[in-house]
Amino acid sequence: MAGQQFQYDDSGNTFFYFLTSFVGLIVIPATYYLWPRDQNAEQIRLKNIRKVYGRCMWYRLRLLKPQPNIIPTVKKIVLLAGWALFLFLAYKVSKTDREYQEYNPYEVLNLDPGATVAEIKKQYRLLSLKYHPDKGGDEVMFMRIAKAYAALTDEESRKNWEEFGNPDGPQATSFGIALPAWIVDQKNSILVLLVYGLAFMVILPVVVGSWWYRSIRYSGDQILIRTTQIYTYFVYKTRNMDMKRLIMVLAGASEFDPQYNKDATSRPTDNILIPQLIREIGSINLKKNEPPLTCPYSLKARVLLLSHLARMKIPETLEEDQQFMLKKCPALLQEMVNVICQLIIMARSREEREFRAPTLASLENCMKLSQMAVQGLQQFKSPLLQLPHIEEDNLRRVSNHKKYKIKTIQDLVSLKESDRHSLLHFLEDDKYEEVMAVLGSFPYVTMDIKSQVLDDEDSNNITVGSLVTVLVKLTRQTMAEVFEKEQSICAAEEQPVEDGSDANKNKTKGGWQQKSKGPKKMPKSKKKKPLKKKPTAVPLPQAKQQKQKQANGVVGSETAVKEEEDDISDKGSDSEEEETNRDSQSEKDDGSDRESDREQDEKQNKDDEAEWQELQQSIQRKERALLETKSKITHPVYSLYFPEEKQEWWWLYIADRKEQTLISMPYHVCTLKDTEEVELKFPAPGKPGNYQYTVFLRSDSYMGLDQIKPLKLEVHEAKPVPENHPQWDTAIEGDEDQEDSEGFEDSFEEEEEEEEGDD
């Protein structure tokens, strides 16, 4: 390129500047983001929760068998090595001399800037005698001295030095490359080419290819694509899956197959131990030939899962395999939930009637199986077995008590302290305190539901085909917090009646208070007093409120059905009278009108189903994008037999229990710490009327803590668009402007014709 020069770094000093900057840009942010945090914080956290979670398997495994984590040590070594390299390069740079300095002839001649011409000539003679090549001096140094002398004595050279910084005048633009010159040296060309070829033609393709091969095998949720295909096939094949079939399909995941997952193991002893466990379980179907559900790896996973649900003791050689299998279950069940939802969306969008959607029972069984796998309980076992020190033997004393009928966790919490203590009299004091601590840590979630139509003038008016948004606000508290508040409210209401000396009667040994009268079982004498004084101030228990709401809904639906039947009977009688006065032609017209109405209804239903499908798919994409930005660490789950610390997560969805259909796709709530607001969207029904739906909140970890609330929708006819609607104002104004312009053009043409006539 003319007027330009490219120079490599002959001495290698410039390369150190570049290398120092490059290493610093990597080491400084990497230290901030990758330096291991305080490892003692995890030990402190475990000590703080030992009172509640001390008997959990995951807690004991973490304490007794701490997993050797080499990653923090490797991170520290790499970062320290990077800092050592950075400091060495910085020291090297600080010791290098500046090569590119401004040219100063006084410095070359070792003179002060104010030297006279005589002093310059005298110094030039002395240096010439010293560095002249004929007298054995340095030729390069002599040329620099001659150039400096000319710059200070010759007028043209002095002018060039003052204007361009060089006695020779303007020079070509020089570009320095911060690479040592030996890289482009012909002697080292073969070595450099080998390094480039190894880096860009071998290492880089291998790294990218291995990453790509691994990524295409997994979905976005780190589930094997083959597993998703297996689940899709069997869910489509079995529309209504019971629990046995669901466990069989779950165990067919490729994550348990050593051929597709290196972490899965297969031992020769499995051929002896697995048949022994099958004989002990005794309820495994081995006759059907459905690969891969009948493959050895799938059979092994199924047996280990069933033995876990039955809380059976298995051989030590299989414990590690069982723990590996259980850790995979929550993510695999979530994938199965996603598969069922996708098939439901596809079924609603298909025109063929042969494509049948999975039932709502299949979806709910997946959620129940997740609870069972985390807690290590079978389907119809009591939720009280989730608590410590309560086994099958002493459970009969609790559930079959003559005075108290305790079936759920809420029933046990709602008892008086004295009654609960007498009910659990078979427990020692320290065990009773541990049970109360665990019971108080269980979650208590409340739902506030509000339905509306967004982006509409009247958001509370739900019309046919509109997009309904159900805003659900979830509030998470512990059992201890909830009933401590109720205890304080009851104490404030009963303070004028009771003495202050009895205020501390209801303190439990577990560290949290319990009100004297439970939310479900309240003595009649206690109920009547506040009802007489302030009937509206006393809240009813949640279960009773739900029963009353459901009863009111049933009564309303029955009256509505009766009114519809009366209307139909009236219309029927009127039609019978009118039919006598009609002719055959009118009957044909009516038949054609009915067919056209049916066709319109079918088209409307197809449009609604397509809209529903697009809506649910867009909602799922938004949910995944939103969940990726939030932390999924909520609260640890109390699970006696689960080998890994599990976080509290929930499923939230709307369904029609009467029709057994899913209204909105399940939203996986993974960020509920204290409060969370969730929007469930779905298109309104295609016909006006009253609709009874149900909002479900299901835990993926606890049994017996699901929440159910009714949702009533009143759908009206869509309002007709008025003629003078604001959206048509622009078009009308445009038409008026067009008419004005046309009139102006006509008048302009008339004026031109008149002028031509005058001429």
Question: What does it look like?
Answer:
Residues 497-511, 513-588 and 728-741 have low confidence and may be disordered. Among the domains are: 4-95, no CATH class; 105-166, DnaJ domain (Helix Hairpins); 189-217; 222-381, Sec63 N-terminal domain-like domain (Sec63 N-terminal domain-like fold). The two termini are 72 Å apart. The longest helix is centred in the C-terminal third of the chain and has 45 residues, at 584-628. Helix 8 crosses helix 9 and helix 11 (225-237) crosses helix 15 (316-349). A hairpin with a 4-residue loop joins strand 6 (650-656) and strand 7. The protein is elongated. It is of the alpha+beta class and 759 residues long. The protein has 25 helices and 10 strands. A 5-stranded mixed β-sheet has the order 4-10-9-6-7. It has a 3-stranded antiparallel β-sheet with strand order 3-5-8.
Portion of residues within helices? 40-55%
The name of the CATH architecture of one domain is: Orthogonal Bundle
Low-confidence blocks of residues:
497-511, 513-588, 728-741
The spatial strand order of the largest sheet comes to 4-10-9-6-7
The computed structural class is alpha+beta
Portion of residues in beta strands equals 5-15%
**Tally of helical runs:** 25
CATH class of one domain: Mainly Alpha
CATH names the topology of one domain as Sec63 N-terminal domain-like fold
Q: Count all strands and give the number.
A: 10
What's the mean pLDDT score?
77
Termini, distance in Å?
A: 72 Å
CATH homology-level superfamily of one domain: Sec63 N-terminal domain-like domain
Largest sheet: 5 strands, mixed
What would you call the shape? elongated
Radius of gyration: 42 Å
